[in-house]
Amino acid sequence: MTSNKYYQYNQLSYSPSKREIRILRLLPHQNSEKICCELLHVDLDAALPYEALSYCWGSSVLEEQIICNNTQLKITRSLHEALLHLRDDKEPRLLWADAVCINQNDTQEKNRQVGMMRDIYRNAQRTVVWLGEGNYSSDAAMELLHR
Fold first, then answer.
1. Where do runs of H (alpha helix) occur along 4-146?
2. What is this structure's pTM?
3. Rounded distance, CA 51 to CA 94, Å?
4. How many Å apart are CA 75 and CA 67, to the nearest integer?
5. Strand 71-75 to 64-68 pairing
6. Residue 49 vs residues 42, 44, 46, 106: alpha-carbon distances, Å
7. Spatial CB neighbours of 50, under 8 Å, sequence gap ≥ 6
8. What pLDDT is stored for residue 1 in this prediction?
9. Are 18 and 86 within 8 A, CB to CB?
10. CA distance 116 to 75
11. What angle do CA 124, 108, 114 make, to 5 degrees?
C-alpha cells in the first residue's frame, strides 16, 4: 500500500572502514504499470551483487513517479523508461542509478558519492547502458554493430 508521502532519504554512513551507498532493488512488475522499488543501504566494499546503470539523463524535470519504500519518489522520464525496460517479470533486480541512489538535494552527500563513483562502477557485476527508446534507425545501427 502506498501513502501520499514522498520519499525521504536517510543519511548514509561514512567512515574510513565503511563506505555506504544505496542500491535500488527494482521489484518485478507483477502485472503492475507502477514501478516499485526499495532503496537499500549497503557497504560498497561488501555489497550484494548489483548492476550499475549508465543512462542518458535527458531532461532534468522530475515528471514521473515511482513507488520507493512504499512512498512516492519523483524521477526523470529517461530513468523511468530505463527502469520499465529493465525490471524483470519475476525476480527483483539490484541496480545502482545515480539519480536515485544519491540524494540529489544533499550537496555534501553528492560530493562524497561522486568521489566513490569509480569504485561503484568497478565493484558492479556489470554496467547496463540505456540510451533511450529504440527506433528503426537505432535498430539498424545495432544490427550493423552486431555484424
1. 77-86, 98-101, 107-123, 136-146
2. 0.84
3. 6
4. 10
5. antiparallel
6. 11, 10, 9, 26
7. 23, 94, 95, 96, 124, 125
8. 46
9. no
10. 22
11. 30
Q: Dig out the grid coordinates for 114 from the structure.
A: 561522486
3-state SS, residue 7: coil
Cell, residue 53: 546503470
Q: Looking at residue 9, what is its pLDDT?
A: 94
Residues in the chain: 147
Helix (H) or strand (E) holding 96: strand 93-96
Q: Which residue has the cell 524521477?
A: 75
Comparing C-alpha atoms, which of 26, 21, 34, 20 is closest to residue 72? 34
Average pLDDT for consecutive 10-residue bins of the chain (147 residues)?
74 87 92 88 91 82 89 93 92 95 95 95 93 68 75
